[in-house]
Amino acid sequence: MSRLMPSIGIECHVQLSTKSKLFSAAGNDARGAAPNTLISPLCLGLPGTLPVLNGAAVDLAIAAGLALNARIASLSSFDRKHYFYPDLPKGYQITQLDKPIVGAGRLKVPLSDGVFEVGIIRAHLEEDAGKLTHPPGSDISLVDLNRAGTPLLEIVSAPDMHGPAEAKAYAQELYLTMVMARVTDGDLYHGNMRFDVNVSLSADPDKLGVRAEIKNLNSFRSVERAVAYEIKRQQELINAGESLVQQTRGWDEATQTTKEQRTKETATDYRYFPDPDIPPLALAGDRIAAIKKQLPMLPWDYRASWSKLNLDGSVVTALLGRPAYASIVSSIKDEHGEAHARRVAHWLAGLTPPPGDKSNVPEPANFTAADLVELSAMVEEGALSATAAKQVLAALPGSGQSPRQIAEKMNLSQLSDRSALVNELDKLLKEDAAAARALADYQSGNLHAGSYIIGQLMKRTGGKANPALAAELLKRLDR
Amino acid sequence: MSGETISQMVGRLLDGRATARANVEAALSRLTEHGSYNSLISTCEQRALQRADQIDQSLRKEPGRAGRLAGVPFVAKDNFLSFGAPTTAASKMLRNFQAPYQATVIERLEAEGAICVAKSNLDAFAHGSSTENSDFGPTLNPHDKSRVPGGSSGGSAAAVALGSVPFALGTDTGGSVRLPASFCGVVGYKPTYGLLSRFGVVAMASSTDVVGTLSRSAGDAALLVDVMSGRDPHDATTLDRPSDLRYKGGLRPLNVGLIEEFMGPEVDPAVKAAIENTCQKLARMGHRVNKVSLASLPLALAVYYIVVPAEISSNLARYDGIRYGYSAPRAASLEATYGLSRDQGFNAENKRRILIGTYVLSSGYIEAYYQKAQTVRTKLINDFKAAFKRFDFLIGPVAPATAFKLGQNTKDPLKMYLTDVMTVGASMAGLPAVSLPAGSDPAGLPIGAQLIGPQLSDGKLLQLAQDMEGVN
Fold it and tell me: Is domain B6-228 classified as CATH 3.30.830.10?
């Protein structure tokens, strides 16, 4: 049997971080809001309401397109997609069928052993639906329309990924790119980015096999695992001589398997047609150019800028998930040099959960570059130990105090004054017979005895002795 | 007192010979007196009287700051969302619907002091040409109670024709203002698409719906469009108000084209004679009238009854029995809630149009129907453009015949649809048009003449109509 190659294409719904919804002035951030509080007559689908396109959502779609090296359409238009469901108040979703705002583009994706490129076919604007909940033990369903009308950008990739690791890497790089471009809040826990993954196997490299679409994955890990499972499932069916049917499947987190939802034969006829309420969207070159000019640094810009910092891949990825942190590291590098930047990069990465963590991630802390450089300098000059520096770092945000003030208040400053430390060491050796014996052992070659003396010195100084300096002084006694 | 124009009524108020309250009370009592015509669905008596008292009070304080429509009562077709009464669209589906906001055009009329006193009858969701498709019973023609007033703005046209109010709001998707104006003998004005906001109007077909007026004079129509027009941030399809909307100065001799396709043998001889008389009047006024042919115009009706049902099927999808409106009792499942609510809430004509619209948009049929209809629509628009290179305005009848008998066409939907054959062209092309009283047939039933202009020629079109009113 010939080798079957998997091909994976991903459709990603990115929730745009606008203040208001795609077609109404109702608030867009539904996180934590009571049900049906972020709604307007339009969100309810009341008679007489008309959609008016939110210019801010258009600007974010343009920024996203530029970040994907894509062509922005000078003319795009909106269509209605019809189906009945209680979370869809108008009985149709407004989307872009034939003329999407973003055309073909590409995204460079890092892998542990290199880089590969994924083609972007298109990206289009559309409105989200509301949310249904089914209270357990009850025969009612509850409709929450807070999310109805939230602007989404659906980014459609080419089937350029050929395994679970590549699929995960693309999803993660797309996430970092959208977050860095300030297009989305990137809160995966609240579904800010959702992935639909198309998987097919084929022996012919020029032809795709029958695909299965796995809907609504909301973490990189589930993308990776669903793809791995689906490749295995299809491979087994093909090996058994069965023919595949094009279908939509769901990912079951509990069993780590995909399950059939519907096949092509039962697909809905959405009866798309151009929405007559929304004039075609014409974009002037000036508007696109202005957005391009203001586009923030993107993941590959940062990777290039940090190439000499010798940062671990995981540190880089962590920082890129927090644009505010990434930008601090870069500005420290430019203004204060690589040593400070490297130290601060590790600190900030340590404060950052893995990108796209599905838990409820706290907001990034508010640091200034100046404070972080001051803290880094204190470590460099020996005034603060690495451990103490982390304590100061934790106390810094919102304290209104400088790192030095905090270190003093917390009594963390290191004893790095040579004469003061010599003084303390002399007193120790005079007053503590055990220490004096240990010195003799140390001088006859027992290195553990040296550690004991430094430990006692730490005790005397309340942990403030600079351990490097103490070791140096001890060595001198040795000579 | 009945039969006053807006300017006459405002004049009496400013002279101190009337009050807003007296105007509203008089209008309400006339409407009650004419109750047997069934032109109304509800009155907004309480709110109307409150507003009248407020207007009278502020007039006493600041007489110089009266609005241009101060104390003028009007009737709005019941597909305009407004306060003070339910907004039903004459459908069981919305029988108890209370609007939480008002239509932009209602707000703009109120800002100039106009007072909505009642909501008028229509074909449910404006689907019809006779007002017989109302779930609240048909409206009767003021000139002959055995006949229809035209539709779908039949209640508004009847209320103005009966002299109850000086003007009424209607909507025109394929002739729904012009046809009842013609059948009832009043002025019906359909503006350029986009000139008036559709926000707060129950949608029928978004690409051709316009707000229109029924009034006693073309001058009143000009005043009303001036008050209501201009961009609306709630309606992305609204246009900037053209600078010549209030036409100043006399019209130079114009070229008027008599549409040949509208003067064929199927047209009632009395109607043809009335249009020919109107052309002679134009000639006496110094304008030149010549025949013109628009080859694609006869196709407009077929295009209309594909594109409009398509949009209807989409616009009516929101009435699902879940958030508001009629919801079928005892529906056992979600599917049943949808199916029963829509089956019981919509009437036969609503369902006919939803089915046609769903069909023409369906996969496998959309190319043959909806998309082909759009191609022909573009051809029609181009034919109009070509005609307007040679002519300032086009003229023809509004309908092939005068008002028909109640029940005459209800069993034959196609025959009913044919009533719209002369009005749908301007709708599909988004052109301004006005229906003017042009005499009557031997039975005394009114005949309307239709003037059609190029896009945004509304000011000049209404000026020509006003000039014609002054000539015998």
Answer: no
